[in-house]
Amino acid sequence: MSKLETKNELELQKQELIAALKACGAVRYGDFTLASGKKSKYYIDIKKASTDPKTLKLIARQAALRIREMDVNTIAGVELGGVPLATAVSMETELPLLIVRKAMKDYGTKSRFVGDIKPDDRLVMLEDVTTSGGSVKDAIEVVRETGAKIKYVISVVDREEGAKENLKEAGAELVPLVSASDLLK
Predict the structure, then answer these.
(1) CA 42 distance to own-chain centroid
(2) Which CATH number covers residue 144?
(3) Does residue 128 have a known ligand-binding role?
(4) From residue 11, how far is each of 14, 56, 62, 119 by CA, in Å?
(5) Which of 132, 143, 142 is nearest to 169 (CA)?
(6) Does 127 count as an annotated binding residue?
(7) 105 is in an annotated binding site
(8) Which of 14, 35, 85, 95 keeps 20 to 30 A from 77, CA to CA?
(9) pTM of the predicted model over 0.70
(10) Is 135 annotated among the ligand-binding residues?
């Protein structure tokens, strides 16, 4: 496939995902407070998308296409929003899954991880929505403490409010499936 054909295919996929996100009710308007503490006139509820099998499958396929171009061997997701996304992508790519907890549990193995992680692993992190990139940046640091590498973060929607730049500073590339400006047109 030529670069132009690939670019056209990605644009068609993006439009298909935008339609699916709107159809499942993932885009809402009103007054909202985001995880970052910022106020917003719109809210992107990817949990609506990740609980809709058709939309989740679409997200998984589109993420998997991008992952084929990446040198990774593990799919990771941060609880809670990233877990269904990473699980679906893991099933689509047949790469192992790693779930990163936001905090160490205080019972059992007391681990921050569900799944195996080795120092030579190369992970891609799945995120539902990125605003500043703060929560995924924390997860990247925890993963890197094990010696494993994270070079890419795939976000279903990037709100275009600093995540790309903040993740770049942390040595990771943000790969959004859709940007907020495209979704809100």
Answers:
(1) 19
(2) 3.40.50.2020
(3) yes
(4) 5, 18, 11, 36
(5) 132
(6) yes
(7) yes
(8) 14
(9) yes
(10) yes
